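input
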Amino acid sequence: MTAHVFFAPFEGEESQESICAKTQRLFRSAGFGSLVGEDDLTAIKTHFGERGNTSYVPPAFVKVVVDEVREAGGRPCLVETSTLYRGQRSNAYDHYNLALEHGFGPQKMGCPLLFVDGLKGHQHVEVPVDLKHFRTVAVAADLTLMPSLLVVTHLTGHMLAGMGGAIKNVAMGLASRAGKLRQHSAGRPEVTDEECIACGTCARWCPEDAIEVEDVARIDYDRCIGCGECVSVCPVGAVGISWNESAEAFNEKMVEYAWGILRDKADRTGFVTFIHRTTKDCNCEGRAGEVICEDVGILASTDPVAVDQAAVDLVNEAHGGDLFAETWPDLLPEAQLAYGEEIGLGTRRYELVTL
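output
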């Protein structure tokens, strides 16, 4: 099987108007309008950046996708989820205000902005996958109610995966807090004794009664299921994540999450990837990212593996070497593509259709 990946190359310094026009042409050439049913509530997943970060896909480009979904008869909405780490995106209230600051508000975008995993990222549905690392994956609950999905990605490097593309945008961006925790670690939240105030909030919220509080909170790991509830409810941020996963396992876990999240939308999902201000780190950094590649263009496909493979090939061609391997040695982004093809998430074989 060979996937089609549509490509709109950049020609020197592109204006905002030119990039918007190319985004529209890609959407239509890739046939994404056919993915959207009449009156379908259609999720558009992008990334609003962290405060101080400027390397996300600009709202003007995302709005093109919003408008095209509406033109196709769907009801577009921007969707996001809460992060594991503390910051402006760790709950829906602050995340919403950040989206407004960065220009993604409903008035400017012309559609609602929904946080599909609840106020603090704890609402999810367990979707069976029965794969190498997971039997089920924790998918943001309200996403499962939306029949169509457009994934708008800013290609970046990543300090744990080596590369952040469409697969990572789906796997991390559309999992609940529990799902993010399971991907990042062996499921072990940890208490920092010096920060714990022994308030008992984590113990009251723990669904498995795995936490006891005396002078500080103590987690019984024989009972802990790694749901992340204690991380989300701690009022002082004393419960954190153990970042203890190997690079290969981390990448494979992301692939399994992407597979589980997309399985009921396999024929109703499109991917738009911007190779534009590609940065060394992901958009979660609270600062302007270090740009590591010239602007290359925009890709569109219905296959997440093919669109990521094409993105890697194009940046390597522009860079004159293996960009992500050189930027993040030993992080094995190749594992995302190889394992994604192995389990049927998509194919690495593609035909590049240049517009």
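quick obs: The chain has two domains: 3-183+245-354, 186-241.
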